[in-house]
Amino acid sequence: MPFLTLAIPTFNRLRWISLTLPVIIAQTNEIGTGEIEIVVSDNCSTDGTWDYLQQATCQVPFLRLHRNEMNIGPEANFHLLPKLAKGQYLYMVGDDDLLEEGTLRRILSALQDRPDYLIMNFDIYDGRLERCKQKNRLNVSEDEVFVDQDACLKRINVLAMGFISMWVGRRDFFNTIPKEKYLYFANWGLSIQAD
């Protein structure tokens, strides 16, 4: 059983996932395939994304694919990924989010202390992933440990928490609320945090 699952939701994003997935695969290969799995849930893409993913999985044994029979919407696709994951921890990665060099190694190192969640800083890039528009989005200069949710929310803006690629959590913390309640929170872009 893998320790960490990287879960990637996607829909008609061939342009982006063809840039980001090779970076994730390369970092996973550097670590070794026993600790990490990659699961991609394709929301019935029609732009060649599914064909690209099938070709990639032929070459990468730790990459598992799921394709929805019809487009179930982004939030339902997010909700599905924890059920597909096998790792003790889940890292939901946006299909257009590039990992900086060494990201997975650093995550695995931080997870050795068995925290409930990791919250990671991020930079914001333009739509082509070429120009950085904002560095250090959370304005954090060193690692911090929070012992309760209130202390964390006082430090980290809750709206920033909507960026799916900024946190890793224990897989069993996901899908703890009914799907209807989960989707209700989607109106505010906070459905993932609702779990």
Plain-language structure description:
The chain is of the alpha/beta class and 195 residues long. It is 34% helix and 18% strand. The chain has 7 helices and 8 strands. The strands form 2 sheets. A 6-stranded mixed sheet has the order 3-2-1-4-8-5, with helices on both faces. A two-stranded antiparallel sheet has the order 6-7. A hairpin with a 6-residue loop joins strand 6 and strand 7 (132-134). The radius of gyration is 16 Å and the shape is globular. The chain starts with a strand and ends with a helix.
Q: Over all CA atoms, what is the radius of gyration?
A: 16 Å
Question: Which percent band covers the strand fraction?
Answer: 15-25%
**Ends: how far apart?**
23 Å
Global geometry? globular
Helix content: 25-40%
Major sheet details: 6 strands, mixed
Low-confidence stretches: none
What string gives the helices and strands in order?
EHEHEHEHEEEHEHH
Number of discrete helical segments? 7
Quaternary structure type? single chain
Mean pLDDT across all amino acids: 85
Q: Strand order of the main beta sheet, please?
A: 3-2-1-4-8-5
| Structural class designation | alpha/beta
Would you count the extended β strands for me?
8
